[in-house]
Design goal:
It catalyses: ATP + protein L-histidine = ADP + protein N-phospho-L-histidine. The chain has eight helices and 43 strands. By secondary structure, it is of the alpha+beta class.
């Protein structure tokens, strides 16, 4: 097993153990001892440097390499040389360090760089920059400011190589190999088996080829093809040399410094696990098939014996597969034999035939018809091909013939016609039924629309009612609440105990009556909605008078008014009691509100055909304008126009609305000598 070495003479090399060998074997043992096999360099004085544990051993040329001195470094991992610079990599098991030396004595460190991955290779890119390959990426280290920039991450760099044509190559562990151009990596294509995914080292010859070592063979590739790939992604053809070409092993070694090189006599040296491989690239031949020695004339159909054909091939309709053999008298490695095929009109791209024990193309999964099988074989390293074409026919089964397909088409057409005719009749019947259904639905929708319109109107009326109801509540409780507030204020201003007691009693009684009134708000709310205008059992109007007189007693007393119920006779009424209570409440409230130091008279008279209710006061009285307004408001026929709020308040408007609801009559007039009189006539029937 071998790794690093150095050219020692024009046709010999020397390794870290001191073995000087040529292509024939050992020439001399210089007895360097057992040392690390991965690092070995000449310094500027042609002394040989190699590694042993944490030390660099320097063998002196002046003593014919018999004497040496040692340079030790803590945590030494490797050392490198590029042009006039030397570098030593060390590690503290957390980081790796690259120390730069300008002197071959390796005593004074000029500068150091710290990396997170192990340093595997080192190359002086220009006067100001270094390329450093690590186990976790490729970096540029700048000498002027001692800063590090990452070129590529996620790749494990093995070697940084500059070939004699000036190209800089990067080889990696399982990430392929790259060309460095303008500080950017361009990934190169791999061979067909991807052996170059872990390429070791690259050396170029003077005949237009690169030689690349790997763990599975030595590859040769055209410089022109590989470099053109960087611009136009053209085809690249690798030729692989293996044990079948005379090598003792397919596994070459990598990761050493240096790894491979050329000697003065023109021979290349590559390390392998079986020793160093010497060869002269001009004497190594690559073999390709010759144009005239490519034959396609044998076929094996299913499991039958192989038969011969010429240009045309006929396959029966019961075939499963057919192996078409490509016969080429080619005895080199099959890895270098490239045969591609495609079926014209079926395949777009050429597909490479996998060559195992037999060189064949298998026809399968094709329907009946006429086809052309196109084959091409690479016959030169430049990518030239020799083409062959084979015509073949696959016979159809009876159900695959044109006549059978025509009959099926006619039967299908007949079936479609019958189906369409039947379907048309069915659709006509269904359309008539649908039309009838649609008409019925239209009528239902029309009725629904009318119902919705009715509901809409009811909703609008309900909304209007809610508004009126809230306003009615506010109107009916305003006077009692205002009175309670007034008494509370006066109570705070007086200090006489008897007067305070009188005020407390008034507040208590008014509050209790107001509470009783609020307890009947639900009944009050039903006034606008109720359709029950009449009651079976009658009630006395005077009872309503007494209830309302009690409610307004304290308020009237505070204004020095007197509420008088003029008793004529017992007057029974069958109008909804809640409606009558609301009407009387509003009229008494109106009289109390606008009268001071006066009398509010309440009178109910029972006549033969009607009941007359009169509520009069001796207050300021309505203006003639108001009397005319309310009388005309009652005479209006359209109920929707009845509520005209103007600036006159809501109470009397609600009274007029309820009067119309019970089909009664209301008259507003002056009271003599002063005040207002409001008369209500209710028909008994």
């Amino acid at each position: 097993m071998s790794n690093s070495s150095l050219p020692f003479s024009k046709n010999t090399i020397i390794d870290p153990r001191g073995y000087e060998v040529n292509k024939y074997g050992l020439v001399k043992n210089h007895q360097f001892g057992v040392n690390d096999k991965h690092f070995m360099f000449y310094d500027n004085s042609d002394n040989i440097l190699y590694k042993n544990d944490n030390s660099i051993i320097r063998r002196h040329k002046s003593s014919q390499y018999t004497t040496s001195d040692t340079i030790s470094f803590l945590g030494l991992k490797g050392f490198f040389k590029s042009l006039n610079l030397y570098a030593v990599s060390t590690t503290d098991l957390t980081h790796s360090y690259l120390h730069i030396f300008e002197n071959e004595e390796l005593k004074k460190i000029n500068m150091s760089f710290k990396f997170t991955g192990f340093v595997n290779s080192f190359f002086k890119y220009n006067d100001e920059e270094l390329l450093v390959g690590c186990s976790n990426g490729l970096y540029i280290a700048r000498l002027n400011n001692r800063k590090i920039a990452q070129v590529a991450k996620g790749i494990s760099v093995k070697n940084i190589i500059k070939t004699s044509d000036g190209q800089i190559w990067i080889t990696t562990n399982k990430d392929g190999f790259f060309l460095l151009k303008d500080k950017k990596l361009i990934k190169m294509p791999l061979d067909q088996n991807s052996y170059l995914n872990s390429a070791h080292y690259i050396v170029d010859d003077q005949y237009g080829y690169y030689w690349i070592s790997s763990n599975n063979g030595l590859f040769r590739v055209s410089k022109k093809q590989l470099l053109q790939y960087t611009t136009n992604k053209g085809l690249v053809f690798y030729y692989r040399f293996s044990k079948s070409d005379g090598l003792l092993t397919n596994e070459f070694n990598g990761g050493s410094m240096p790894d491979a090189y050329s000697l003065e006599d023109g021979e290349f040296v590559f390390p392998s696990i079986e020793g160093f491989v010497f060869f002269d690239p001009k004497n190594i031949k690559a073999y390709y098939p010759q144009r005239k020695n490519i034959y396609v004339e044998r076929v094996r159909i299913n499991d039958s014996d192989i038969t011969y054909f010429k240009n045309n091939l006929v396959l029966e309709n019961n075939y499963k597969y057919a192996d078409v053999f490509i016969d080429i008298p080619y005895y080199s490695s099959s890895d270098n034999l490239i045969i591609e095929a495609k079926i014209k009109g079926e395949d777009v791209d050429w597909k490479q035939i996998e060559i195992k024990n037999e060189r064949k193309y298998t026809i399968s999964n094709l329907g009946p018809g006429n086809y052309i099988l196109q084959l091409r074989v690479q016959i030169s390293p430049e990518g030239s091909y020799e083409y062959r074409s084979i015509s073949f026919e696959i016979k159809p089964l009876f159900y695959q013939t044109d006549l059978f397909k025509l009959c099926i088409a006619l039967i299908f057409l007949l079936i479609v016609t019958v189906v369409i005719h039947t379907r048309t009749k069915f659709l006509r019947r269904r359309n008539r039924a649908l039309k009838k259904t649609v008409n019925n639905i239209s009528l239902e929708l029309k009725e629904s629309a009318q119902n919705l319109e009715t509901v809409k109107n009811d909703m609008q009326k309900e909304s209007e009612y809610q508004k009126k109801f809230v306003e009615a509540i506010s109107h009916d409780i305003t006077t009692p609440v205002k009175f309670i507030a007034m008494l509370s204020q006066q109570l705070a201003e007086v200090h006489d105990a008897n007067l305070q007691k009188e005020y407390f009693d008034s507040i208590h009684q008014s509050s209790e009556e107001l509470y009783n009134f609020t307890m009947h708000l639900k009944e009050y709310n039903d006034l606008h909605r109720t359709e029950n205008i009449y009651e079976k059992e009658g009630y006395l109007i005077n009872e309503v008078f007494k209830i309302k007189t009690k409610l307004f007693h304290e308020i009237a007393k505070s204004k020095k008014n007197c509420l008088v119920i003029e008793v004529e006779d017992e007057t029974y009424c069958h109008i909804n009691k809640n409606i009558m209570t609301c009407i009387i409440h509003n009229l008494i409230d109106n009289g109390v509100k606008y009268t001071s130091n006066g009398i509010i008279n309440l009178l109910a008279t029972n006549k033969e055909e009607e009941i007359m209710i009169e509520i009069s006061d001796t207050g300021n009285g309505m203006s003639q304008e108001l009397i005319t307004y309310y009388n005309e408001l009652y005479q209006m026929s359209d109920e929707n126009d009845m509520i005209k709020f103007k600036n006159y308040g809501l109470g009397l408007h609600m009274v007029i609305h309820l009067i119309k609801k019970i089909n009664a009559e209301i008259i507003f007039c002056e009271n003599h000598p002063k005040g207002t009189s409001i008369k209500i006539n209710i028909t008994k029937n």
